[in-house]
Structures are given as structure tokens and as C-alpha cells.
Amino acid sequence: MRSMATTILGRRIGTVLKEELRSKGEWCDSFMAAAFRAIAERIPLANLVVEVRDARIPLSSECEILRNYPLPQKQIIALNKMDLAGASNVKAWVEYFSERNCISCGVNAHNKEDIRQLLSLIQCQVRELKRDDQCDNNYTATVMLIGIPNVGKSAITNALHQVGRINAAEKGKLKHATVSPEPRDTKDIRSFKIGSHPNIYVLDTPAILSPKVPNAAVLSKLILTGAVEDCLVRRKEVAQYFLAIHNSSDQYKKWAKLYMKDNGRSFLNGTTEQLTSSKLLMKYKSQTPTDHTQDCIVQDVRRILFETISSLEGDIKCEDEMLALIDRQFNALQEAFHISVECEEDAHDKVAGKLLNLFRTGRIGHYILDHFPGKIQ
């Protein structure tokens, strides 16, 4: 259950972001407005729409354009980044959408088996359309991929294109959609073949947001997952929001046995390793202190988060207690990330950047930020 302190921090970030967007007019710029119109014109021409959402925010990452324009007969919701959300969590959301007569599936764009299953689902829906089409000869279907920024549309497009052509035994140089960790990188609508007999083409479209700025709660989730750029809100505040979510969850309990120290012995994943001073020296010489993605540093981050939460004596539901805990965690993580203490504000900003990177790449657990409608957050 989401604590009140977490909800307050999320709304605070969302409110600040909303005010910044309104004052600077950077929410839906002229490029995105043009992309919005181009996609709206092509939706009625598509045989099938695949809406790509972020599996961590299955509701908040909805592409609102699909509410307001006539859709083709078939639609699939692809919950991408399921490796960051957890298979069991995504399965529950697939069941939720199924109960509402929506076809959906979980997918990791970098997992070929997931892509094959998504391609099979697309082909199944296209075959149903083909049976309904009396002009059956040389049937060609167009599949349009739609989504908000940074949900992985282009990565899915490339994977479908590669797997589909290999399955169809087609040769020739593959063309690729541009994939970038930065939001709004796709600029044009491009077509890629993903199947033969019948021929299926997928359209990779630019990412679009709702013309209207969403509420503060949704905005906070969009910036935390990277759908909205960090530059409009201080990274430390976004990282504080993540830590509040983490501290309110049971994720840290999974790390209880990750590190246990007893009489100079270090226990890692159930195996014992005697660390002498010479071994420690060799171990640290092989590390790059500035690289926060190293396993040893990630393990330290997990240990720190476990220790700080499990040793808390106050009420984590209280905003002051939560903020005090987060402050302790920032100071401890500063040491784990080997960040200089010369300027605390700059140091905490660096801690925030590294921590958010680990969250967004799934190195510190699985998280679902949305809750089923009707449940207490």
C-alpha cells in the first residue's frame, strides 16, 4: 500500500512540473502537434493498432489519442519493459485488461521469445481480419504502433522486423528504426515489414502526449519512468519520490540475505568468502569507483537500502519520518557511489542521477507505480 508521505511527494513533484510546463509551453510543441495530426489521419487506415505502454505504469502511459479517434477493428495493448515491472505483476495487469475485453500482453523488447509471442499474437489478429476480407488475394495488413515517449516503440519495431523477416526466410539488408534512451527521438512515420503470407507491415510512429497536461499524480510517474525529461524538475526531488515508493514497498526484504557480516566473514547469496586485507585490496583495485553500474556497487546500494529501512524505528507513513529516512539514504549512497562531499547539493544531485539510472534499468528491483482502479494508493 502506498504511504501518505509517498503520495504527497509524488503530487508535489507533479504540481511543480505542471506549473513549469504551463509557464514554458513545452508540453505539446509544434512538432508533437504535427505528429499528433499525422497519426490521427492514419489511424482509420490501419488494420490493427498496437498501443505500447510502459509495464510499470499500465494506466498512466495510456496514449489518449486512441480515446478520441475511430479505431480499426483490432487493438492490442503491449506492456513493454516487463523485465522492469516483474512477470507476476504484468500477468495481473493482462488479466485486468482481459476482463475489460482488451487484448494485451507483456513484452520485453530485448527478449526474442517475447517478440515471437507478440508477433504471433499480431499474426493471429491479422488472420481473423483476412478471413473477414472477401478480397483475399495478396492480402496486406498494416499495423500501427502508437505510444507516449520512451515506452520502447522503436525497439519493438526493430525486434518485430528482424524476427518477422527471419521467420519468413527473407534476405536483404535490414533497415532499422532509430532507438534512443531520450524521449521523442522518432521523428517520422516509417514502415517495416514483419511478415509474409499475409504480408504485414508495421508503422513506427513518433511518440505523442495528450494535448492537455495530465494531473500531478500521472506527471510524477511519467517523469520518474523517463517519459518526460528530467530537466524540468530537480533530479533530487525525483529520486526522493522513487525512494519513498521503494521504502513503502516490500522490495527491500528480498535483500535481507544479500549481505550479512559476522566475525569478518562476508556472506553473499548463501556462500561464504573469507576476505583478507590483501584480497580486499585486489578487489577494490579491479573496480572503477565512478561506474555505478558495477555489480559490487549495485550490491552496496541494495544493502544500504535494506539496512536503512529495516533499522527505522519511526513511522514510515509519516512525511517527516519518511523525509528523514530519505536524507539518511542519500548520505549513505553518496559514499557507496564514491561521490565527493565538497558540495552537498551537487553531491546529492549526482547521487540522484545514479540512483534513477539504476531504477530505470531495473538494477534495484521491480516496481509497478500504477494501482488497479478502486484500490487504495
From TrEMBL:
What does the entry list under GO cellular component? Answer: mitochondrion
Q: Which Pfam families match?
A: MMR_HSR1
Say if the entry is tagged with keyword Iron-sulfur.
Answer: no
The biological processes this protein is annotated with in GO are: mitochondrial translation
PROSITE patterns noted in UniProt:
G_CP
Listed SUPFAM superfamilies: P-loop containing nucleoside triphosphate hydrolases
Single annotated GO MF? GTPase activity
Keywords recorded for this protein, A-Z: GTP-binding, Nucleotide-binding
The reply on keyword Nucleotide-binding is yes
Query: Domain CP-type G, which positions?
Result: 33-211
- Indicate what this protein is called per its UniProt record: CP-type G domain-containing protein
Lineage of producing organism? Eukaryota, Viridiplantae, Streptophyta, Embryophyta, Tracheophyta
Gene symbol here is Vigan.07G194500
